[in-house]
């Protein structure tokens, strides 16, 4: 049997345990609010206690927490006689203030200020060209009335900084050369075809509309899919999983509140599990080298429209034509995003009854109409045949909003004198 211990037999710790119990009982007993204030005041009194000889009251100072309280409370502060206050005159400050007031009331004669000549001032009003605070230049602002009033989003306002527009455009033109899908990659895919890719992109458009995602999210997702399929062979049973994971990555990169992974599992009708979506996400990121920040056609469309003050209808038509081109991998993968964006704007201007191109657009985009002509003709054909394809998600998207640009029919090439002259 195990031995039992009796606590009261521990003779050497009886005193220390009793002192701890006394201290704990004192701490557990709360004092009245008034008593706490008294204790606080008493604690602030400095301890002026003469040191005792070594060994005197040593045990009391250790075991008794109130060892010095008796000495403190017994010390009585002698009252200050009233006669001591008579040395201080209460009216001294008032007399001084009266004296100062009299001095202020006196007329003080000051010497007139001398005029300083030939002093160079950084804020001189004579030089109106240098002055940045000129009223004629800073207050009176005349806005041109012929420019259309366009409502810009926060994304579009990024390109409105005139001081950096050229630098931004130069950076985007350099970045678009680095991470591109390979044209004609579908020929090397053993189990998927262009029609399967078209169905996948059309389904992704419906997903974006269902969850109200940004247009840039859709364009990024399609870009990730094409880049991934350029290096990896995928069976048809996993193609939708690739599209779902690519949309999941693009949403997390672009959206403020992206849908969760369980939402993307739900939209696939539970065809794939959450674990499969996350594993495919990891594989796509590994193949892409985590290079997710790539310029797209939509980035260049926004930049071109802002720099040329193009209307919303032109921009929405260019976006509509661009999304129609995403249904087809070839021949559009051979063109750069900036080239595609310029051609989409040319098709949009032609469809809306304007000249397809002008010198201002050529100066900004650095593309001439002769360089855009091949891509322009492909986009014009895609736009013309948009109503005959079985995938109609993009048409329905631009039929309900974006000024219903999908309802505008394609304009024949023969109706444009500008294009006829270019063809000659």
From TrEMBL:
| GO-annotated biological processes | cell division; mitotic cell cycle phase transition
Q: Name the Gene3D superfamilies on file.
A: Cyclin-like
Keyword Cell cycle, does the record have it?
Answer: yes
Where does the record place the Cyclin C-terminal domain?
295-411
A GO cellular component term found in this entry reads: nucleus
A molecular function annotated in GO for this UniProt entry is:
cyclin-dependent protein serine/threonine kinase regulator activity
Tell me if Cell cycle is a UniProt keyword of this record: yes
Alphabetical keyword list = Cell cycle, Cell division, Cyclin
- Give start and end of each Cyclin-like domain: 202-286, 299-381
Q: What Pfam families does its record include?
A: Cyclin_C, Cyclin_N
Similarity comment: family membership: Belongs to the cyclin family.
What name goes with this protein?
Putative g1/s-specific cyclin e
Lineage runs: Eukaryota, Metazoa, Ecdysozoa, Arthropoda, Hexapoda
